[in-house]
Structures are given as C-alpha cells and as structure tokens.
Amino acid sequence: LQRQFQLQENTGLVVTEVAPGSPADDAGIAPGDLVVKVNRRSVGTLNDYRGALDATAQGKPALLLLNRGGNTFFVTLRGE
C-alpha cells in the first residue's frame, strides 16, 4: 500500500476506501490518506485506531491527524 499510494511515511493506517456520504467523506478524508493519530494517540494498527475512537465519548467528534502527499493536517470526524 505504501508504494501504491506513494506514501513517504510508514507509521499509520492507509485509507483504502471512503464510502460516499459517510462521516469520513464529509470530513474530506480520501483514499491514500494516512491516518497518523486519532485523538492525539498514535495509531499503527486497526486495534489502535478502534481503541482511540472508543476512548471518545459516544457521539462526540474525533480529531484525526492525516498525512496526504507529505502534508499533515487535522480533520474532525463527527460521531455516530
């Protein structure tokens, strides 16, 4: 995936698909983005990601640090 999406960084989770109309789509997350942190917690595995999201109160937004093309930025992912 790192080669396919031409990622420089290798710590995080690669977004491979975003469902249209989903909270991720609404937040501007795109395939090829690298999720580096969730709620200020580093994520390297899917379990890390889920644990960081679970730590967020039900229905509250999550703060994601993404890397896209070597640029890092934050997005807010609304709670369900």
First-residue to last-residue Cα separation: 28 Å
Strand content: 25-35%
Share of residues in helices: 10-25%
Rg, alpha carbons: 12 Å
Q: Assembly type of the shown chains?
A: single chain
Mean pLDDT: 85
Order of helices and strands: EHEEHEE
User: What about the largest sheet?
Assistant: 5 strands, antiparallel
The outline comes out as globular
Strand pairing plus helix content: what structural class?
alpha+beta
Low-confidence stretches: none
List how many beta strands DSSP finds: 5
Q: If helices are DSSP runs of H or I spanning 4 or more residues, what is the number of helices?
A: 2
Question: How would you describe this structure to a colleague?
Answer:
By secondary structure, the protein is of the alpha+beta class. Helix content is about 15%, strand content about 30%. It contains two helices and five strands; from the N terminus they run βαββαββ. It has helices spanning about 25, 45-55; strands spanning about 15, 35-40, 40, 60-70, 70-75. Strands 1, 2, 3, 4 and 5 form a five-stranded antiparallel beta sheet that branches. Strand 4 (about 60-70) and strand 5 (about 70-75) form a beta hairpin. The longest helix is centred in the middle third of the chain and has 9 residues, at about 45-55. The termini are far apart.
